[in-house]
Amino acid sequence: MADLGLEELKKIMRTCGVAESVDLDGDIIDTPFELLGYDSLAVLEIQGQLEQSHAVLMSDDALEQTKTPRQMLDFVNNLIMAGA
Amino acid sequence: MTAVITGLGVVAPTGIGIEEHWSSVLAGDTAIKPISRFDASSYPVRLAGEVREFDAAERVPSLLVPQTDHWTHMGFLTAEMALADARIDPAEVPEYDMAVVTAASSGGTEFGQREIQKLWSKGSRTVGAYQSIAWFYAASTGQISIRHGMRGPCGVIANEQAGGLDAVAQARRMLRNGAKVVVSGGTDASLCPYGLTAQLSTGLLSRDSDPARAFRPFSEDACGYLPGEGGSKLIVEDAEHAASRGAGTPYGEVAGYAATFDPPPGSGRPPTLRGAIENALADAGITPADVDVVFADAMGEAGADRDEAEAISAVFGPEGVPVAAPKVLTGRMYAGGAPLDIVTALLTIRDGVVPALPEDWEIHPGYRIDLVRGAPRRMPVRTALVLARGYGGFNAALVLRACGT
């Protein structure tokens, strides 16, 4: 399975909607999801979609370790590597 | 404490916004058409009153669209319109003074169907996280409360069509308990395969395929009702609060209300709609002669029509009060139906004109009610009675009265 890139993550984030004041094409990689308008349920939804698109299984504590887009990319890519 | 209605918001088959709805109702423009939200050609019921020209992507904040069902999308817009109509900016009202109580009878069926299909075809991990908050009856109330920062008491009433009146009565109780502004009313949307199939189980839906004949309440050939979707929101407000912020003359006062529950089928005891009417009039401190118009529940099923016609003529006398049934144009909108009737009743009071059914509407000769037909009837209206029944035996009656002289 190919690595998860930021553009692909943003595509999934867009399916959850975009807050009025937020530009996902700006410098967001280290901005907490919460400040981008995505609450914990939205992050769960994003994780669920990543599970499907990248054939990984997120643990219950993944929420704590995926607070920003960069953390999400690292977390998912580690899972992909571990599974390969 | 006097409860008044200071704002209205409508998303209905008859139109989006109160004036579009009202002009459709007065013109008698029916919204009953073949179901277009899904392919219903293989279903026994193929007609409905759908809300057309509603695009959630344009009318609902982007983050909220994927989190919520079509029924909540319409709920957001109706609430926003009603607040704007009342000229209330929720940011300027203390958050605990604002309450939300809506009616809902289907929950998020379309959303739920999508997720259930994923569950059974692709497995539990494919079910989206938002299913947890989108499907249940209180979702619209909760979302409206969060969006507008309304932290007073919140609730939902789930008893089908009667709930729309019960919610407004509950709003009045909340005002008595100290709330100042309540977002009330309701919407419903159940025009998806799962939602329609659930409705079929009552056996009360019309299987006629002629839009002009399929839903004929109070006629001799009544053969059931058609489903509709949408609804309205009402801002129910403490009259003193409305006056203190210079809200102008409200649309009307919530003057009286009562609810009853029918005995079980086969008990031999009569239905109790009449009691609901009499108790609502008593609650308003008026007599039948004070009521200018009745908005009927108009189920379109022979037994239910007879019960309602008998209840009305027993209280008001034979042909004793004009009766309107605008839901013929929209179908039965469940939790959204009675709130829309409240809007129509308040506009009837505002403009002094009672909407009519088509001229050729043949009323059952056994029903002694003055069903308004032909042209809308121009007459002064100060007091309107709205009736609603919910599947399973719920009856509710609400008295609306003009404010001022």
Polypeptide structure, described:
The complex is a heterodimer of chains A (84) and B (405). Chain A is an all-alpha fold and 84 residues long. In chain A, 52% of the residues lie in helices and 0% in strands. The model of chain A has no long low-confidence stretch (mean pLDDT 94). Chain B folds into two domains: 3-244, 3-Layer(aba) Sandwich (Peroxisomal Thiolase, Chain A, domain 1), CATH 3.40.47.10; 257-401, 3-Layer(aba) Sandwich (Peroxisomal Thiolase, Chain A, domain 1). Chain B is built from twelve helices and 16 strands. Chain B has helices at 18-27, 56-59, 70-85, 109-122, 131-134, 139-148, 163-176, 193-200, 239-244, 273-284, 302-316, 337-351, and strands at residues 3-12, 15-16, 32-34, 47-49, 98-103, 154-157, 181-188, 230-238, 252-261, 293-295, 322-324, 353-354, 370-371, 377-378, 383-390, 394-401. In chain B, the strands form three sheets. In chain B, strands 1, 2, 5, 6, 7, 8, 9, 10, 11, 13, 15 and 16 form a twelve-stranded mixed β-sheet that branches. In chain B, strands 3-4 form a two-stranded antiparallel sheet. In chain B, helix 3 crosses helix 6 (139-148), helix 7 (163-176) packs across helix 12 (337-351) and helix 10 packs parallel to helix 11. Chain B is globular and about 60 Å long. Classes of the chains: A mainly alpha (84), B alpha/beta (405). At the A-B interface, helix 2 of A face loops of B.
Summarize the structure.
The complex is a heterodimer of chains A (84) and B (405). With 84 residues, chain A is an all-alpha fold.
Could you name the key traits of this structure?
heterodimer, A: 84 residues, mainly alpha, Non-ribosomal Peptide Synthetase Peptidyl Carrier Protein, Chain A, B: 405 residues, alpha/beta, Peroxisomal Thiolase, Chain A, domain 1, 2 domains, 12-stranded mixed β-sheet, two-stranded antiparallel sheet, 12 helices, globular
